[in-house]
Amino acid sequence: MMRDSLVRLLEEYEASHTHPTNRLTHKVAIPFIVFTIVAMLDWVELGSLQVAGHDLTLAFVVLLPAICWYFWMAPFLAPLIVVPALLCIPLGRVTPPWLVIAIAIFAWLVQLAGHAIWEKRSPAFFTNLVQLLVGPVFLVALFTGGFSLRGSAGSRPTGASMRRRDLRGDREQGGAERSPRADGSPATRYMGLRSAVVVFFLGGFALLLCDRVHIACGVLEQADRSVFGQAFWVFPLFGLVSIATVTAYGRLRGAMGEPARSPGVARTAVAAVWALGAYAATGPLDGWGPILLGVLVLAWIVRIAFEKDRVAAVFCLGLAVVGPLGEAALSATGAFHYLHPDMGSVPSWLPGIYLHGGLLVVEVEAWLAQEGD
Fold this sequence. Notes:
Blueprint: H1 4-15, H2 20-41, E1 45-51, E2 54-57, H3 58-73, H4 78-93, H5 97-119, H6 131-144, E3 147-149, E4 162-164, H7 193-216, E5 220-222, H8 234-255, H9 265-281, H10 290-307, H11 310-332, E6 336-338, H12 350-372
Antiparallel strand pairs: 1-2, 3-4, 5-6
């Protein structure tokens, strides 16, 4: 649900962002701009006051009213904006100041270039400072499918061309469900907001428990143990990763021209047992290293041979590469570290977890694709 005042602000924002290339520059720049703004505000300490054991900084003071505004205006979208914004605080503290400044310069140049070169119109916040808050909403709404843009790709729609999508399901007066493309506009919808919330909480909670197994078995340690012995960022990060992977598979499937598979309860349950079982098994079997990787890879090959799904195979292999690289990058920040790494800063069995996790993502996306039809 969105308040009408926010819908009007989004329509005003969209009117200044009609060129496809300008919208692309904003998809790249806005996350970096949010990160650098929060990181820089966090540099300003406000006396000796503390919040949750940390010194109070200007970042907390500025974020608090912004968070309230997002939850008031768009309660379903707010978590997808607020959680990454809060994660910018610890991330900014481990990022060198010179790099934060360099990222800020790069991001603002990219965003302003989109307006100067392609849009040829000034940014919306030049006339209304509230639009600074609207930018992240616009980006997340497009990404989740909460809004769709009218007009064909490459064309410049005229006027306020954004329509509100009823988050509880569009219905015609006769009771029939309206297709997202019923008006002829090329609306792109990867995941509904309700589905995103479900994926966020279920994925975040399941992975949180698996991560707990790794901690209990002495596989890894986290620098922060403020929430029941685990870092405060673990649950929201896993929730966002769950949304990102399901969305990424949906995009890949669409790009490769493959239709969505029919969802099945038994198949999804089997995929969940394999994925969560493989994750949990690596706790007590951590010392097996390459042998455990070989077992997991062999089991995945057998499963994918029965699946006969080329898109799923490509996705799982990509996830098995990107996942460990992402964990290595996060480990480099000091947020956590594996205690017995044998493949750089991560254990050699780690890609095997992602292979089986990828097949669970495929099954989850099948249910979401059916809901979106």
